[in-house]
Structures are given as structure tokens and as C-alpha cells.
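Entry 0007
Protein: Response regulator transcription factor
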Amino acid sequence: MPKNILIVDDDTDIIELLKLFLEMESFLVLEASNGEEALNCIEENHIDLAIVDIMMPKMDGYQLIKKIRETLQFPILILSAKTQEVDRIMGLGLGADDFIIKPFSPLEIIARVQAHLRRSYEFNRNTVESTVNQIHIGNLTLDHYSCILYKYNKPITLSSIEYKLLTLFMEQPGRIFTKKQIFEKVWSEHYYADDNAIMVHISRLREKIGDSPKNPVYIKTIRGLGYRFARKEELYEK
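Output (C-alpha cells):
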């Protein structure tokens, strides 16, 4: 069944270029020129992936991503002329899965779209087929069936990347994972020495579970090596 790709950009030339290449790969393309139009489109259609510009009228890309992530978890790719590191960190921090700088190669966009759709499909399939329903460590419970984290039995909604990170950590508490190992296991891509994405997503996870960045209880930074998740006995000792 063809996948629905939503392109949100106020530049009609970019929309037409992306639409041409996406339709050549048998994707169905929906269009919006600003965040408000995009939200209306999302309400009326099933969306498998969105490509979102940042600088748009009425509602910019950051506001749109924040609104989408309140209820939905399909992959979001930011496509922007903004080149500052802070823009990329902000976009990933709000819940985007990728950040691509304009000008861009349409073939690279297609490759990234296909990679994110493949990971999204594998994430959903593995969740359904999981035989271990829950992992309990301290006051946290990771439910594989619903892809929801519980703390003191209160639900915490996770993005697909956050879910994969917690699964990696909580299935092997105490093990130190290097940034390369984390990136290649969670993102399923070759590590290219850019750990901003890892840092941003771990920061968001810590915020969601109430883990102090200066003195984290659960996700611990091991200087010069990477990260590890606390063992059960460490939490019981506190």
C-alpha cells in the first residue's frame, strides 16, 4: 500500500521538486504551505511521514512539530535553510527525527524518507511481536505492548527513538554503551561522529522521567565512554 508523505513548505518550487521525486518512488504526496494547513491535513488523512520547513507563515515548523508530537509519532524530517547548531538541536528536541539543510539533493531526501519509514515499520512490527511485555527497574516500567513508559504508574508517552533508547538501556542495566553503539543500534545507521542527536534525545528522556542532568538516577553519563542505565540494586540502595 502506498505511503502518504506530507510536505509542509511555503516554497512551491521545493514542494513540486520533492513531489516529482517522491511520486517516482510511488509515494502519495500531500501538500501544505504552513503549519495550520498541515494540521488540517493531518486531521483528515493518515500520514506516514512529514517533511517540514521551519520558517513559514501563520505557524512555523517548530510549533507544528510540537503540536504533532502531542498525539502522533510518525517520522518527521526537518528541511530548512537554517544552519546553526541550535536550530538542529531545537528541532530534534521538539521531536523531529532528522534535520536536512537546504540546498539539498532530492535523491538524499528519498533515501532518508525510505530509511525512516523502514525503521518506523520495524519499530511497530517488533513492538507487536515482542514476547516480553514489560521491563521494571526502580519506579519505571517500560511496556512493550503499548510503547509507553510508566513512572509511579503514571504514563509517559515516548517517541520511537526514545522507546528504542530505553529498551536498549533497560534490557541491559549496568552495561556501558558507547555513543557509536547507541547510534548504530537505535538509528540503524553508520555512526559519523555526530552525537548531537544522542545528546538531545537522552536529555529529553531525562526530562520526561525527572532525571536530574547534574545528578541522574537512571541514565548515567560515563565520561569519555558513553551512557549506562542504573542497575536495580543501585536504586534499592538509595
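Curator remark: The longest helix spans residues 106-129. The chain has two domains: 4-126, 131-237.
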